[in-house]
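Risk register update: the risk of archive-format incompatibility is retired. Evidence:
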Amino acid sequence: MFNAIRNLFRPRPRPPLPAVPDGTRYYVIGDIHGRLDLYAALIDAIDADDASREAADTEVVLLGDLVDRGPDSAGVIARTRAWQAKRKVRVLAGNHEEMFLNSFEKPEVLRHFLKHGGRETVLSYGLSRKQFNAMNLDELFALMPQLIPQSDLDYLQSFEDMIVAGDYLFVHAGIDPSVPLDQQKRSDMLWIRDRFLNHHGPLEKVVVHGHTIFDQVMDCGNRIGIDTGAFRSGVLTALVLENDQRRIVQASQIDGGPVEVFQGERPQ
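Archived output:
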């Protein structure tokens, strides 16, 4: 009887922390949005960090929204393709990649794209501001297939929708909490916001996502938001996952100063 009472008040063991598979290491990068300067610094930091640690099956995952808003979307795409030639880098589709691709369908879709950061993307492909301002919408629409290489469009079309790594799911915007992972709609994975962000119960996996900007890494237990608003805050974040451990690597440029790299332990 006394043993039963003791067992009743004995602290219960904590459930295991979420983990990626043994022997793997993941660097998950939030929304880049054309900030090639921050991205280049983060690439160098990740390559150096990975080389300084025990050998692992390392993957880099970009959470989408490589393009728009920042000054060099074309450069971000080119740098990503070059990085993929050297290491395993997987890229998820974001809603801004979808808008970019859809902007070739008709002028009104292009107009929507330009209003949401697409103007900067178009300019990054070599069109001057003077040329851009002199064109009407129909003229720009006609020029787009000549301005943007088909190889870049094919590349954007190849981006993945979600990636599973052990107890984690990587996706651009989030998931519909009421639907199993294998039945998720692509539109939700690229665009969802409130239905996902306001869900506080457990999910099938811990979801690592971008799309919604936070001042700092937002660890809510069931999800981790790592879009720190690089295009406006000057802070680009990578979440590093290894075994059941988490840490962050960030490239930042504050008030026009030099780009600096910060590395920290498990985000709160």
